[in-house]
Amino acid sequence: MVATIVASLPSFLLASSVAHSSSTSSLIFNKLRSSPRLRFSFAVAPLCSRRAKFMAHTLASANLGLTQPANIESPKIAFAAKEIDVGEWKGDMLAVGVTEKDMTKDENSKFQNSILKNLDRLLGGLLAEVSSEEDFTGKSGQSTVLRLPGLGSKRVGLIGLGQSASSPSAFRGLGEAVAAAAKTAQANSVAVVLASSEGLSNESKLGFASAIASGTVLGLHEDNRYKSESKKPQLKSLDILGLGTGPELEKKLKYAEDVSSAIVFGRELVNSPANVLTPAALAEEASKIASSYSDVIYANILTAEQCKELKMGSYLGVAAASDNPPYFIHLCYKPSSGPIKAKLALVGKGLTFDSGGYNIKTGPGCSIDVMKIDMGGSAAVLGAAKALGQIKPPGVEVHFIVASCENMISGTGMRPGDILTASNGKTIEVNNTDAEGRLTLADALVYACNQGVEKIVDLATLTGACIVALGPSIAGVFTPSDELAKEVFEASEISGEKFWRMPLEESYWESMKSGVADMVNTGGRPGGAITAALFLKQFVDEKVQWMHIDLAGPVWNEKKRVATGFGVSTLVEWVLKNSS
């Protein structure tokens, strides 16, 4: 039985559990890795029964419901930038992004915009006629696809951009609309052109082309891994017309592809149910990233015993109730050559399921049914690691840190009133077991500071209070550093993701004081997102610039009941801003 368990161990444990340990059991474990014959011999016996036990728990949990995700390959789209007349392009669908101004017609009901006028002429006036009949005015969210004879393309689509379009999010939306139209038409080849691109700077053209490509990939993505049947998207190629050509644009399209792939990866992590994505499985995914980009990324996955040696009492207190053991994930990106000019850390909350503990989530709005999303911060961090492994920016070292575990209920779990001791020596009275994410982040932030980094950004689905304050689409930002805030907000302008800076009101810390410990883990309901951020601040070195991002709202699309991949794009842009 023990031999079977060892043979089934996750590869990350075989690969990296001994990398930073000198214990006898770890050395024997490493020998098992290098000798298949020993895996089934009596040499297994010296392995601590604890390891065999928690791996048995892991394997049992992974089989709960007999559910495994189907291995569905993500669709690959060939992007190309071309400068040709729209009437000469040949393919399944030509999509034209139009503003309300572009749709203006003269007294003869003819288009005034040159591209639309040319298309309408080639189609014998049908484009103007149909757009009038369908009352298409170019408003944001409007689209119409026409199957018309007379062009090299089988279909012409008009996609509304609103009164004007100048932001990355607008053009990402254009890409998503193109993807939706391509799905409906089952198109293999699509071209996109803007009705008005005159006067755009070269930088704007690069940014808009990248946003269109990214939006198309993300709009095409459907997570069908847990469905018994699924249709594969037909789209194989996307040509972007009229926004330039050349190596610089090709590089930008490749960048969009890399980041979009990482966002899809982040989405799929969050979408995965807790009976599949256990802490061990999340650590396995992190290990795969390191294996895929081993020239620039290495992994250090710590077990509960190793975390105990590092005195991570706050993190381990949360993990104590679950049969699925915790895994502390640390990936490090280092360029293969050149000097390091900036050291950064990205820390993500990694609760693969949150029941609330003894303060169990109950009643309307508790959202216990979607608490698989409580590792949304870690998904953003690991997604960024995947993208950066592909992009390979110079001059910057990045640590990706996730204290992964479950918050469950059992006789071994933490109770309200328990006192935990974090790895920096500070003590915490647990007055609410459902304020657990900050407890795991406390030790993760201390660990990040110990890596010698200059800046830390942590991301967490931390509070419902932040959703109440900012709604479902905007993440709350808390930082004492104006410089760091400026950097991240500049990155978000490129990514198109929405953030809002919130106050760190120090006077609110009064509600976090304990009579018997250094602090409690939650204050009252007023200012709940602020007091949560103030709690995290207690575990960050004063010399380190730090930001907390509460993404409880935008991590999840409630209408579609799927993850968004929020945070990945902004994190990548921020790291690149710190790259030489």
Automatic annotation (TrEMBL):
As cofactor, the record names: Mn(2+)
SUPFAM superfamilies xref list: Macro domain-like, Zn-dependent exopeptidases
Which InterPro entries does this UniProt record tie to the protein? Leucine_aapep/pepB (IPR011356), Macro_dom-like (IPR043472), Peptidase_M17_C (IPR000819), Peptidase_M17_leu_NH2_pept (IPR023042), Peptidase_M17_N (IPR008283)
Q: From the UniProt annotation, give the residues forming the signal peptide.
A: 1-15
Query: Which CDD domains does this one have?
Result: Peptidase_M17
| Reactions accelerated catalytically | Release of N-terminal proline from a peptide; Release of an N-terminal amino acid, Xaa-|-Yaa-, in which Xaa is preferably Leu, but may be other amino acids including Pro although not Arg or Lys, and Yaa may be Pro. Amino acid amides and methyl esters are also readily hydrolyzed, but rates on arylamides are exceedingly low
Q: What UniProt keywords apply to this chain's record, in alphabetical order?
A: Aminopeptidase, Hydrolase, Manganese, Metal-binding, Protease, Signal
Please name the PROSITE patterns in this protein's record.
CYTOSOL_AP
CC terms in the record's Gene Ontology section: cytoplasm
Which residue numbers delimit the Cytosol aminopeptidase domain? 432-439
Gene3D superfamilies for this protein: Leucine Aminopeptidase, subunit E, domain 1, Zn peptidases
One Pfam family cited in the UniProt record for this chain: Peptidase_M17_N
Biological processes per GO annotation: proteolysis
- List, in alphabetical order, the Gene Ontology terms for molecular function in this entry: manganese ion binding; metalloaminopeptidase activity
Q: NCBIfam families from the xrefs?
A: PRK00913.2-3
Q: Describe the subunit structure.
A: Homohexamer (dimer of homotrimers).
Family in the record: Belongs to the peptidase M17 family.
* Full protein name: Cytosol aminopeptidase domain-containing protein
Species of origin reads Gossypium tomentosum (Hawaiian cotton)
